[in-house]
Specification:
β8 and β9 form a beta hairpin. This protein is α/β, with parallel strands linked by helices and 558 residues long. The longest helix has 39 residues. Helices cover 39% and strands 14% of the residues. The chain has a single domain, classed as TIM Barrel, CATH 3.20.20.
């Protein structure tokens, strides 16, 4: 039976929202029935779709072992205060939590605990509680194996989930926060990290130095990650980036992590911060692998002579202290004559070709997210008169007049937008002809549900294809082989409050994604005139991407 690896998922985060004195066992899979109490209220404040898809468990240890996951990088995480406060503004939601504290949904997501998390002066205690939660027993007798050295790993251990860890944001390592402080400086952060490692028999493979709010501005600027919240009516202004690039404190952290054999995870860094990270590594002679544990691709270059990020900016507007950009969705590949509107998400949180090259050259690891939005899927409602939605932009001048595009909304700080590569000698929207057409996509996605399922898979498949194309550009057949047999893996972000693709809505369905990849990907390769490396079958390619690449990478770090 095939085994699976994941470079980024959460197995304890949802338990953190239950009472610390009476926690939900992480082994328990939270189902729709568990949280359906109060559904009518939740529908009003969150929307049924978001509620059903993101609140139920996607990667409980029970689900993972039933699906034959063998080794994972589990995220240690303290929920960003900015995110918690944005959700708190939904009064009807908070009133529901307060009224349902005793049982059902109110026990899983407890009102008292929610307020404790917002006020927490020692986020590292929440991370320590992640590890404490893992001590809870599985009623069926299954267990975790915490890997510290290579000999700890047993690939064929029965009913055992091998764990190494990642930390999602340096704010998670903070302590003794006072007077609105959101993170410690580099010295205190590293001190707390060292103490955590001293007290616990764990291996941390990588750390995100920033996350989704502005808690970690002392280290670097983050990329905008909250377009989903914006689209669902949350007030996320405080979650928009305000900083610029990598700071001197961030440089100290990167050096300190490298000295401890811990990798800097580029996910959530702004594009400017990522560029400055690569420059700093070269200056300091840092040669450790670069990892993006749970990312998506833009499908484009940020700044090359024949293609620039600015070519896909269809509209830009200064709003407060930020620059808002409406981005077209770059179409790079098609499947037949029907599926010709598969676009990438060009938002700056995703990786540009330059980022992929840095990972490739460093012998790093790229975990492909299974989040619909990250992979580039956007639904679209009727685009006729009176039905234009906020993810559809209509051209209003010249040759653009009357054209509807599906767009992603991105925000960057004014300082980064001003002079850090967001200017071009070409006009904004230069590549508008290569972007997803809203009317064409509307006809496709509203035709039947099977089209949506197929489109979700194609977004994933085209991410793999794009990496193969880049590998061929950089090192011919050897580059293609390196992408498939070393660089690529799955970094789902399950239970990270994502809306996962229909091809694998949770960990129990990962085998369906693998099977469809084996069945359909050869035809996609043939249509796009690229071959598997000599001697590599499609099944062996699937083995590498879904398990072996990640396993080998982790073992090389032990």
């Amino acid at each position: 039976m095939e085994k699976y690896f994941d470079s980024h998922l959460h197995i304890t985060m949802k338990s953190q929202f239950s009472l610390e004195s009476d926690p939900i066992n992480p082994w328990r899979t939270i189902t729709f029935a568990d949280i359906s109490e109060g559904l009518s209220f939740l529908q009003k404040c969150l929307g049924r779709g978001m509620f059903e898809k993101t609140f139920v468990s996607q990667s409980s240890p029970d689900q993972l072992l039933n699906a034959n996951y063998n080794i994972i990088m589990a995220a240690l995480f303290y929920p960003d205060k900015g995110l918690l406060k944005a959700i708190q503004q939904k009064t009807v939601f908070m009133n529901l939590l307060e009224s349902k504290q005793g049982a059902g949904f109110g026990r899983i997501l407890n009102y008292k605990r929610y307020l404790e998390l917002i006020k927490e002066p020692n986020p590292i205690n929440v991370v320590k509680n992640d590890l404490k939660l893992l001590e809870m027993k599985d009623p069926l007798g299954r267990q975790y194996r915490l890997l510290k050295k290579k000999s700890d790993y047993e690939q064929n251990g029965k009913d055992t989930l091998n764990l190494v860890f990642t930390v999602e944001g340096l704010h998670c390592l903070a302590s003794d926060l006072k007077d609105g402080q959101l993170a410690n400086d580099s010295e205190k952060t590293i001190e707390n990290l060292d103490q955590l490692l001293k007290e616990n028999p764990i291996k941390i493979i990588s750390i995100n130095i920033t996350h989704i709010d502005n808690s970690n501005q002392i280290f670097c600027n983050q990329a905008y990650a909250m377009d989903g919240m914006r689209a669902n009516g949350f007030r996320e202004v405080e979650l928009r980036p305000t900083g610029c690039g990598l700071t001197s404190e961030g440089e100290k952290i990167i050096k300190a992590l490298d000295e401890r054999g811990i990798l800097t995870d580029t996910k959530h860094m702004s594009v400017v911060a990522r560029k400055e990270l690569y420059q700093f590594r070269r200056k300091e002679g840092i040669t450790s692998p670069i990892i993006c544990s749970h990312g998506g691709l833009t499908g484009i270059w940020f700044d090359q002579s024949d293609e620039k990020f600015t070519d896909y900016i269809l509209e830009t507007r200064k709003i407060g202290g930020h620059q808002r950009m409406r981005l077209g969705k770059p179409i790079k590949y098609k499947k037949g004559k029907v599926y010709d509107q598969i676009g990438f998400n060009a938002s700056t949180i995703n990786l540009f070709n330059e980022d992929v090259k840095e990972i490739f050259d460093s012998n790093g690891l790229l975990g492909i997210s299974l989040d619909q939005r990250v992979l580039g899927y956007s639904g679209v409602f009727k685009t006729g008169t009176g039905h234009i939605t906020n993810n559809v932009l209509t051209g209003s001048a010249g040759i653009w007049s009357g054209i509807n595009w599906v767009t992603d909304t991105d925000f960057v700080s004014l300082e980064e937008f001003k002079d850090r590569g967001f200017r071009s000698e070409r006009p904004f929207g230069f590549a508008w002809r290569n972007c997803v057409d809203a009317d064409a996509l509307d006809k496709l996605v509203n035709k039947n549900i099977n089209n949506v399922r197929e489109i979700h898979f194609l977004h994933f498949a085209f991410h793999i294809l794009h990496c193969m194309v880049l590998g061929r550009q950089w090192d011919s057949r050897n580059g293609v082989e390196k992408m498939l047999s070393q660089v690529l893996c799955i970094g789902s972000d399950y239970d990270g409050m994502i809306e996962s693709i229909y091809s694998a809505k949770d960990a129990t369905e990962i085998h369906l994604l693998r099977e469809k990849f084996i069945k359909d990907f050869p035809g996609i390769l043939k249509e796009n005139k690229i071959d598997l490396p000599q001697g590599m079958s499609i099944r062996s390619a699937a083995d590498r991407i879904f398990f072996e690449n990640g396993r080998d990478f982790v073992l090389s770090r032990l």
